[in-house]
Amino acid sequence: MKHFPLALLLIVIAIAFLIDLYAYQAVKTLTKKLRSEGLRKVIRRAYLMLNVGLMLALCVGFLAMDKSRAPSIGLMRLIGFFFAMLIPKLIICLLMMAEDAYRLLKGILHYGWHKIKRPHNPEGVIYFPGRRKFVSQLGLGLASIPFLGILEGLVYGKYDYRLHRQTIYFPDLPEAFDGFTITQISDIHSGSFDSVHGVMKGIDMVNAQKSDLFVFTGDLVNTRSSEIEPWLDAFKSFHAPYGKYSILGNHDYGKYGRFSGDEVLNEKLREEDHEKLKKHHETLGYKLMLNEHTVIEKDGQQLSLIGVENWGLGFETRGDLQKALQGVDPNSFKILLSHDPSHWDAKVKQDKQHIHLTLAGHTHGMQFGIEIPGFKWSPIQMRYPKWAGLYEEGGKYLYVNRGFGFLGFPGRVGIWPEVTVFTLKRSV
User: Fold this and answer.
1) In whole angstroms, how large is the CA radius of gyration of the chain?
2) For the segment 267-312, what is each residue's pLDDT rounded down to a tens digit?
3) Distance (Å, rounded) from C-alpha 36 to C-alpha 395?
4) DSSP letter string over 307-325?
5) pLDDT single digits (tens) 236-259
6) Cα torsion for 283, 284, 289, 293, to the nearest 10°?
7) Domain extents for the chain?
8) Longest dimension (CA), the chain
9) Domain 162-426 class in CATH
10) What is the pLDDT of residue 119?
11) Exposure of 304 by Cβ count < 10 A (0-12 exposed, 13-18 middle, 19+ buried)?
């Protein structure tokens, strides 16, 4: 049994504790002038007990966690609440630090002025001003915005599925495929689900599209094949007249969980579980594409659908595009399924074969960010420049799906779970 690294846990708790020190100063400032000393003590102690209790619960949860399996639903909720508290406190901390810098500068100037004008300083002069109540009030007011947003994301956002429609025009699209529709979902992460009703909202959305083709672009589970077993009936309910196709993501290789303390046995069990996962794709009715291609025919015309195993910078690199392209007509219209969008920048768009459209996932949009008309932002873009939506270079398109499920943080804030429907159109 492999447990969570103690050193990493202690570092996280230490950082959270330092942030808490500043946040607590805001609580003290706001309660300083309460007439009732008893009420003041109750509020301060309640704040301390809540935060100390949360940190202790996290420590116990992580230290007891079996690393061979995905975190329990209870632990994931604790993580979510921890971040719901931490991010607002970070806002308060930054505001209080800015005020302390102002107080320090003002105090130094005040001290210098008195030393010049009044070398023998009279008693009772206070050089450094105290914290101002309105700054603490402002900090708490600003912090309440992300706090409420994160709480909403924890309760509702993770199952607030959004339908994204993309119509893409290609001059060389075969005429028979003009108007052809494809539904894509990605990153199911079935080991994280905690609501049948929530998941079924997304399932029903997929079925309502009645697309010609269905594709799933990887990460069926978090760590083990057994995570999808309670959901097999739900995810095999999709219907598409031209077939259902899938690929593997980085989480589908079992690399994020241990099966045994013995390295040889661990690898053997991992491979057995991986083979079981592949069979689950078959049970779902998905044609799992492992560095291969197939031909989709309609009215005597064809397009090539290509699927590779995971290829990602810093992750599994089992994807072999050249193997998958063997036997593909160079003049055919090509759609590639590749889990990690970094594959497109590193390999796909430079390939001598023109791959018209690549469908990816993997990033989840970090499950946190801002998307409004004309603007989108997420911290994930520091790692993945192409992290959500449609991108085009030289007539080659990449679409990055924001993901169907969630991982780690048990919610979504601003970046909602996605079902995508593509309509292929022939441009004149």
Assistant:
1) 27
2) 899 999 999 999 999 999 999 999 999 999 999 999 999 999 999 9
3) 70
4) E---B-TTS-B---HHHHH
5) 999 999 999 999 999 999 888 777
6) 110
7) 6-155, 162-426
8) 100
9) alpha beta
10) 59
11) buried
